[in-house]
């Protein structure tokens, strides 16, 4: 097969949806991905696509041990670009509010239901069948398939390990098949190309007061009260804006402290989510928080830090991919060929593995994935026709981009 459209046409609707159903029926919350990892490996191996396990280890904080699945199609021209295809295999923890089996894979009215169906087993199925179709195509450049663990967990350890172990070093661009429109900064519909994302830091603020008997609070310094004032001050921080990514945001998400009855709490902790745009650096957001807290003139001692992480470079930086990049042009053309329309263009409101590729690895990265509803919640579903459409768009664009 030599034309991008021909590669897209090789993707079978029924086989793609059957694969998606198989994936959804495998329970795979983050840190519990062994079964789905083996399934993805075996699926590729049965098609002679030469997969490998890539071990992921984080012994210090989480004690996690797991495996990514990687495979590579080698092109004929060493000077042609290499494209990374990425999806994650894990889901959030199973939500208790499901009124049916959360891994049923039930299909009704073009919707396939299950935890992780949209986020992102639909996208995972899409790159699997796209990669299979590309194996029969004449490729100039390489295509690197990566199915990773722990995207939904605290640190994105699977994608982090890919970068840390050099898998992205020879890549020139990346496609991540996360569901895009549902979390876009603007109101768009598929087919859509998501060309960037905000970044994120997580403030971890320690507040230290002075213990005293609860009947005489004036003799102590109440760390819980001061923690509330810290949360309010951070909630009101000024944030920057970006012409594509929109505004940054601040959201206090946890206050904890105090335990003894009849005692003034001597310590408390405040966790605050900070989504950032390009230009808002780690140093800048720390300085802003420290200044806002200093202005409160609290009696407690306050130390502003960030969430503990396995390494200093594990954070989600914001990024934007140029609309004129060759990968974007290839995806634009593939969308018109496959769907017969021009794609919408938007930017992501939150964070994921794509931030690691777009910021840390410096790869022009585009999110293009099937949409649905109720992601991370009970009743999650993905539109099956969009899973097939995304697979075809990715296959056609990959063929075009790599030469």
TrEMBL record:
<feature type="domain" description="Peptidase M20 dimerisation">
    <location>
        <begin position="196"/>
        <end position="296"/>
    </location>
</feature>
<dbReference type="InterPro" id="IPR002933">
    <property type="entry name" value="Peptidase_M20"/>
</dbReference>
<comment type="similarity">
    <text>Belongs to the peptidase M20A family.</text>
</comment>
<protein>
    <submittedName>
        <fullName>M20 family metallopeptidase</fullName>
    </submittedName>
</protein>
<keyword id="KW-0378">Hydrolase</keyword>
<dbReference type="InterPro" id="IPR011650">
    <property type="entry name" value="Peptidase_M20_dimer"/>
</dbReference>
<dbReference type="Pfam" id="PF01546">
    <property type="entry name" value="Peptidase_M20"/>
</dbReference>
<dbReference type="InterPro" id="IPR050072">
    <property type="entry name" value="Peptidase_M20A"/>
</dbReference>
<dbReference type="InterPro" id="IPR036264">
    <property type="entry name" value="Bact_exopeptidase_dim_dom"/>
</dbReference>
<dbReference type="InterPro" id="IPR001261">
    <property type="entry name" value="ArgE/DapE_CS"/>
</dbReference>
<dbReference type="Pfam" id="PF07687">
    <property type="entry name" value="M20_dimer"/>
</dbReference>
<dbReference type="GO" id="GO:0046872">
    <property type="term" value="F:metal ion binding"/>
</dbReference>
<dbReference type="GO" id="GO:0016787">
    <property type="term" value="F:hydrolase activity"/>
</dbReference>
<keyword id="KW-0862">Zinc</keyword>
<keyword id="KW-0479">Metal-binding</keyword>
